[in-house]
């Protein structure tokens, strides 16, 4: 027991050093965002997407790219999160890498090429001892100077890390919200394609229908994101508890509410509390 206790500080020190290293690479926390999205996901949502043949091909085809456009509100971010969750769950029994970026127009000025690639690097070295070494070497070089990684160093480190994986999945959500100014969006895509040329990177991108983005993926696999009727029903089923008691007690009224919302959704994912609005409208007609 004494030996275990004596060894514990070293374990904690090692964990603390690893945490500092990860924070030094990138302060961005996309996994926390991923957890928050999945927490609000309704069971069964976007299963149609996982079952699509285009996704099966992307998952299995080396260096493939899957482009997933959709109108605003179609559920692109939910789809991306479901795919990421599927990959993270499957990787527990495999050795491939998974990394992802959630682009956001509200923070687009903090999301430059360096920060997004650094976030990808951080995700790929977390929990992967062999792939940490190149980054540890860079940290030792910069630590005493108080300097940070350059874009060149991050890109080179990514190349070194990728070779430790048989293949890597990278998911980019809402590319249209990535800043176009100063060539940031185009350079980010160029860097991802450079990585794809070096290793087996399987890239998935979601975006609104933006002509110049669509042109970038004219040769990629393509699957449009559109909320299925089943997605909307899953959402409504998870919100039944918010409806008036008279509807909660009556399965027929519940079915009517579901069908009305499915009709109103028209290909858009109901990510807002629309159940009460529709139910009140229905109640007023009785």
Automatic annotation (TrEMBL):
<dbReference type="Pfam" id="PF24883">
    <property type="entry name" value="NPHP3_N"/>
</dbReference>
<dbReference type="InterPro" id="IPR027417">
    <property type="entry name" value="P-loop_NTPase"/>
</dbReference>
<protein>
    <recommendedName>
        <fullName>Nephrocystin 3-like N-terminal domain-containing protein</fullName>
    </recommendedName>
</protein>
<dbReference type="InterPro" id="IPR056884">
    <property type="entry name" value="NPHP3-like_N"/>
</dbReference>
<keyword id="KW-0677">Repeat</keyword>
<feature type="domain" description="Nephrocystin 3-like N-terminal">
    <location>
        <begin position="44"/>
        <end position="208"/>
    </location>
</feature>
């Amino acid at each position: 027991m004494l030996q275990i206790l004596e060894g514990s500080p070293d374990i904690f020190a090692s964990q603390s050093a690893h945490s500092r290293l990860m924070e030094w690479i990138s302060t961005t926390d996309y996994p926390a965002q991923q957890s928050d999205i999945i927490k609000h996901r309704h069971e069964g949502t976007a299963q149609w997407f996982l079952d699509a043949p285009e996704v099966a091909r992307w998952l299995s085809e080396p260096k493939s790219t899957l482009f997933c456009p959709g109108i605003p509100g179609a559920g692109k971010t939910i789809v991306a999160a479901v795919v990421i969750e599927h990959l993270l769950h499957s990787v527990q029994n495999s050795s491939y890498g998974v990394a992802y970026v959630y682009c956001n127009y509200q923070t687009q000025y903090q999301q430059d090429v360096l920060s997004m690639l650094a976030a990808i690097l951080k995700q790929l070295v977390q929990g992967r001892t062999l792939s940490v070494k190149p980054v540890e070497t860079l940290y030792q070089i910069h630590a005493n100077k108080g300097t940070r990684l350059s874009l060149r160093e991050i890109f080179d480190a990514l190349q070194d890390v990728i070779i430790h994986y048989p293949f890597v999945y990278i998911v980019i959500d809402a590319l249209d919200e990535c800043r176009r100014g100063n060539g940031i969006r185009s350079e980010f895509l160029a860097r991802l394609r450079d990585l794809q040329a070096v290793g087996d990177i399987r890239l998935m991108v979601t975006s609104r229908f933006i002509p110049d983005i669509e042109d970038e993926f004219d040769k990629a696999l393509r699957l449009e994101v559109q909320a299925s009727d089943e997605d909307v029903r899953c959402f409504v089923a998870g919100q039944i508890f918010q409806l008036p008691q008279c509807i909660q007690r009556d399965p027929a009224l519940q079915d009517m509410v579901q069908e009305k919302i499915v009709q109103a959704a028209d290909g858009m994912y109901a990510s807002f509390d629309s159940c009460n609005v529709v139910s009140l409208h229905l109640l007023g007609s009785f």
